[in-house]
Amino acid sequence: MCFYDQHRFACGDWKWGTFRDHCNREYRRGETCGMKLIYVTIPSGQKCKLCEKIDTKQRRRAAEVERINRWQREGNKFRASIDKSFQIIRALDMETEELSCERARRLQGIGSAH
Ligand SMILES: [Zn+2]
Predict the structure, then answer these.
(1) pLDDT value, residue 89
(2) What's the CA-to-centroid distance between 21 and ligand 1, angstroms?
(3) CA of 9 to the centre of ligand 1 (A)
(4) Residue 29 C-alpha to ligand 1 middle, in angstroms?
(5) How many CB atoms lie within 10 A of CB 30?
(6) Rounded to the nearest whole angstrom, what is the distance from the C-alpha of residue 94 to the centroid of ligand 1?
(7) 1 C-alpha vs ligand 1 centroid, how far in Å?
(8) How far, in Å, are 11, 25, 53, 113 from residue 46 at the CA level?
């Protein structure tokens, strides 16, 4: 078991940081044994990259919904724009879903890393 910094983000996600110390078992060989333990946890005021990307997509989605609501009050004038906006929202939803899966996969990967 070897010791690493742990970076903890505002969203609750975390990642491994800098290598700090060998465990007794591997010290002589000067290698890391691959089993990671937390040396110190470094809190970050920011969300992780993936959560930030998800937030950005959510904000863009909300802006599109807002636009659609505005256009719909104008009757049929903006039919084409509304359709286009719905397409954008569908695309954003798919991208958000992919990011969420990636986030889940990564957390699993970190948790079982040996
Ligand atoms: Zn996150």
Answers:
(1) 98
(2) 27
(3) 7
(4) 36
(5) 7
(6) 18
(7) 26
(8) 8, 36, 12, 24
Collect the ranges in the chain with pLDDT lower than 70. Answer: 25-34, 110-114
Q: What contacts 86, CB < 8 A, 6 or more positions away?
A: 68
Which ranges of the chain does DSSP label H, i.e. alpha helix? 24-27, 49-72, 79-111
- Which pLDDT belongs to residue 112? 52
- Residues sharing a CB contact under 8 Å with residue 7, sequence separation 6 or more, in sequence order: 14, 15, 16, 17, 41, 42, 44
Which pLDDT does position 114 carry in this prediction? 43
pLDDT at residue 111 in the model: 60
* 16 CA → ligand 1 middle, Å: 14
